[in-house]
Design goal:
By secondary structure, the chain is an alpha+beta fold. It is 37% helix and 15% strand.
Length: 206
């Protein structure tokens, strides 16, 4: 999403249930939030609408967040590593990451057919790089950037798979373990041409 939510959309987001993120509004209002990636329609009856992790982040920012253009428009962005202008750091960033991760767990519970929160959901399968990066950052891993050497998450030609690079073997193994705990399948491989080691990870289905 490149534009901030409208004042009316922000009011709907702020009025969402504080625990589940359940939304109430007209069909057109809810559809607009879904289109902007701030809400999703539950696949099972009664097909209620709930906030996505991005929607949770906007709600947490509160009514004092400027409505005009701002970096990321107040919407949380997972750090994939190597950003030229990475998001903020410190306590505020840790709070944002924690909120986004909790929102993603809720999204899993609401959209996985069996309500499981221990494996990725459909949103993660369509946002592989961001989803893997969020799992890593939420577990305390540091992304590369700003003069520091940390993890980097990159897309791959393989369906439903991302590549994760880390500065050393120990950090790479830690990234693989974190992703496995977050519901991903992860294995270490070596690039044939560069001999660089990396973790190939994909969302677990069962």
């Amino acid at each position: 999403m490149t534009r901030p939510p409208t004042a009316a959309q922000r009011r709907l987001i702020e009025a969402a249930d504080p625990v589940t993120g359940r939304l109430r509004g007209t069909g057109a209002q809810l559809a607009a939030l879904v289109k902007r990636g701030l809400a999703f329609r539950h696949p099972r009856p009664p097909h209620d609408h709930f906030l996505t992790p991005a929607g949770h982040r906007i709600r947490e920012a509160g009514p004092g967040t400027p409505a005009g253009p701002a970096p990321d428009a107040g919407v949380f962005t997972a750090r994939v590593g190597g950003e030229e202008e990475p998001p903020g750091t410190g306590a505020d960033r840790r709070r944002q990451v924690h909120s986004a991760w909790q929102g993603l767990l809720e999204l899993r519970r609401m959209t996985n057919p069996d309500g499981a929160a221990d494996r990725p959901c459909g949103w993660e399968r369509t946002h592989l790089v961001r989803a893997a990066a969020l799992a890593l950052e939420a577990a305390g891993h540091l992304p590369a950037g700003g003069g520091t050497d940390g993890y980097r998450v990159r897309a791959t030609p393989q369906p439903e798979a991302v590549a994760v690079y880390a500065p050393d073997a120990g950090a790479l193994a830690d990234c693989a373990a974190t992703l496995e705990r977050a519901g991903w399948q992860a294995g270490e491989y070596t690039e044939p041409r560069t001999r660089a080691r990396f973790v190939l990870a994909s969302p677990r289905r069962v």
